[in-house]
Design brief:
The protein has 201 residues and is an alpha/beta fold. The chain has 5 helices and 7 strands, in the order E-H-E-E-E-E-E-H-H-H-E-H. It is globular.
Length: 201
């Protein structure tokens, strides 16, 4: 699928997110929409020893107010950075490529950007480099309602929706009942397959 797609901002998003990106020429990242709770915008899933584990970035967002995602601030009163980094280390320290990529992810998470969208964008750019994907990217400058934009994937990917995307299986450090686990963060694929990760998209 050549051309351009419209996608949401996301925190260490699933493999499917980057599979979409890898097949287009340009991505347009939504920054004008109202923040959506319980979405990939501030959460991801990794594969821990006991199974899939949710990692969530705490943000300041009062439920009675609609706030544009570009204005969503990260809540650093919670020690989420240490929790996430420890979880990543516990889950992937024995993976083949953890030592090659973790330091870069750690550096970005520890930078303490004020806004969620900035954290997500810096991580996304770093991951695209790890995947050796060179693509043009930009932010939206106005909001287009759902269903009114072409190639709109902003609300397609959601942890609350069952995905039809099937990732080609690779060797995971931990598995559940010896079964391959789908729907994980791109980090799971990168830590386990390294330079070959792009071939699984």
């Amino acid at each position: 699928m050549a051309g351009k797609i419209l996608i949401s901002s996301a925190y260490l998003p699933p493999v499917e997110y980057f599979s979409l990106i890898s097949h287009v020429d340009e991505i347009l990242i939504e920054r004008e929409e109202n923040y959506t709770k319980q979405s990939y915008r501030n959460r991801c899933y990794i594969l821990a020893p006991h199974g899939p584990q949710l990692l969530s970035v705490p943000v300041y967002s009062r439920s009675e107010h609609k706030i544009p995602i570009k204005e969503i601030r990260i809540d650093y009163s919670k020690r989420w950075q240490q929790v996430h980094l420890r979880a990543l280390a516990a889950s992937y320290n024995s993976s083949p490529y953890f030592q090659f990529y973790f330091e870069n992810i750690e550096r970005i998470i520890l930078k303490k950007p004020a806004f969620l969208i900035d954290l997500n964008m810096e991580l996304t750019v770093a991951i695209l480099r790890m995947l050796n994907i060179d693509i043009k990217s930009s932010f939206t400058t106005g909001y287009t309602p759902e269903g009114k934009a072409e190639n709109d994937f902003r609300y397609t990917l959601s942890p609350k929706k069952e995905s039809k995307f099937i990732c080609k299986e690779y060797l995971q450090v931990f598995s559940v009942d010896n079964q391959f686990v789908q729907g994980l963060s791109i980090i799971d694929l990168i830590f386990n397959t390294g330079p070959e990760a792009v071939n699984y998209l």
